[in-house]
Design the sequence.
């Protein structure tokens, strides 16, 4: 009994902090598990959270930079939507690692013929390539290219991987009669991380890669973006924040013009590498 | 004018034009909120973009009993901006209290009052709080600091900061509840 009372008291004390979203992750877990089974604390928290919500309207509205609206609409046209949550508790599930339902589940808005099957994540449709994750350092696979320079070789492998990837994409996402002016292309996870979704867009000379559901990397690694010209070598064009997965928008410091492919690898923080050193996490055809 | 809920339904059906309407309604509020938290136009722009795309992706999971679409959307902006401030993945909780389904029915009693409140009224109520309560609330909600970080920054005991946040919010509610829609 006293333990229970102690918990109520602790939660009551934390309720304002929780409503203002100023708990540490450990405390969030503690509070959430208590609230799930305690109606009176829940009511109290909900009252304060409703007050905190009002603060969302306090900052003065500021007109966003021109071009943002168009960029968002262009990227949205390339971004698949999630299916509605399956049950009342579905939203509680941690949307972090692993393959969320959304990666495999078709969106209801996307018209599908009855009987058509979405391939399981990681299913490769064509052409056939080695099934295991791509590895830049695996020089043994194609003996005839053994003499090729490392980067030249890697690029060949990369292009093979990308061709397979875009074939998969073309099947999985009858994507986009891509919107509008500007260049855009869908980007999707490889076998390494099939849940990744995203799109690259260039509008008014500004290129950006938007990615969702990136696995959380170690703190000394970051995601690096590469553009590959036809027959050329990967050019590093941007990095994400170190140690961060989830959703990211990475500005690219080069135009997509003249480029054939885009790829994302995991590289050492803080600046990335001169050439790709990890397996490819996501890629797309430009 | 199409109401916000109908707009979200259209967005959930894959209508990018409806997303454009949502943008026209809330982009300035969203950008203002992100700027207040991040103080950097470039980062704020990225956060707003991410938030609109998240709204696009998750529109089918919006439930009316969770509150107004405006609050739902601005909460996404707020969460993402705070995530940016806190940086490392380790600071992110995998459970979001707002996602607990039982919590969605927020204080129904005065929902109408809340929806009709003007920015000026909310701002005035916030400004009217005792200084130490207002500072604790602002450092948390617009500064992205945890209560432990606020306690450290202000050199106050943790319990004091928790108390100021809670009392400040209760006071805000009392003040604003007294202001029925004009």
Sequence:
């Amino acid at each position: 009994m006293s333990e229970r009372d102690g918990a109520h008291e602790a939660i009551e004390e934390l309720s304002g902090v929780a409503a203002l979203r100023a708990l540490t992750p450990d405390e969030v877990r503690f509070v959430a598990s208590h609230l799930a089974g305690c109606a009176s604390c829940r009511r109290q928290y909900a009252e304060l959270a409703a007050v905190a919500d009002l603060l969302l309207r306090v900052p003065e509205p500021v007109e966003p930079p021109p071009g943002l609206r168009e960029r968002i609409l262009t990227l949205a046209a390339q971004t698949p939507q999630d299916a509605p949550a399956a049950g009342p508790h579905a939203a509680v599930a941690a949307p972090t690692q692993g393959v969320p339902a959304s990666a495999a589940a078709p969106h209801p808005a996307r018209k599908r013929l009855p009987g058509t099957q979405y391939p399981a994540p990681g299913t490769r449709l064509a052409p056939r390539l080695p099934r295991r994750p791509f590895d830049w350092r695996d020089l043994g696979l194609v003996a005839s290219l053994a003499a090729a320079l490392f980067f030249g070789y890697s690029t060949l492998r990369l292009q093979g991987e990308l061709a397979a990837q875009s074939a998969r994409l073309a099947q999985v996402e009858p994507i986009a009669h891509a919107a509008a002016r500007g260049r855009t292309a869908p980007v999707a996870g490889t076998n390494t991380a099939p849940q990744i979704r995203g799109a690259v867009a260039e509008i008014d000379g500004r290129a950006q890669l938007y990615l969702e559901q990136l696995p959380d990397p170690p703190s000394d690694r970051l995601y690096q973006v590469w553009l590959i010209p036809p027959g050329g070598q990967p050019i590093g064009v941007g990095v994400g924040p170190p140690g961060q997965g989830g959703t990211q928008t990475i500005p690219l410091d080069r135009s997509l013009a003249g480029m054939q492919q885009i790829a994302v690898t995991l590289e050492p923080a803080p600046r990335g590498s001169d050439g790709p050193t990890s397996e490819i996490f996501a890629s797309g055809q430009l | 004018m199409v109401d916000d809920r109908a707009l979200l339904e259209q967005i959930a059906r894959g209508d990018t034009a409806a997303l454009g309407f949502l943008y026209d309604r809330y982009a300035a509020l969203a950008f203002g909120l992100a700027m207040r938290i991040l103080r950097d136009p470039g980062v704020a722009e990225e956060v707003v973009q991410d938030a609109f795309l998240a709204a696009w992706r998750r529109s089918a999971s919006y439930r009316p009993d969770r509150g107004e679409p405006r609050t739902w959307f601005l909460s996404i902006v707020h969460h993402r901006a705070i995530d940016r401030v806190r940086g490392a993945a380790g600071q992110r909780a995998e459970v979001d209290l707002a996602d607990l389904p039982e919590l969605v029915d927020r204080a129904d009693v005065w929902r109408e009052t809340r929806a009709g409140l003007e920015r000026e009224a909310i701002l005035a109520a916030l400004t009217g709080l005792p200084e130490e309560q207002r500072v604790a609330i602002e450092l948390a909600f617009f500064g992205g600091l945890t209560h432990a970080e606020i306690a450290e920054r202000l050199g106050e005991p943790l319990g004091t900061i928790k108390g100021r946040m809670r009392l400040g919010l209760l006071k805000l509610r009392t003040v604003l509840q007294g202001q029925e829609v004009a």
Observations:
- Residues 228 and 234 of chain A are 5 Å apart (CA to CA).
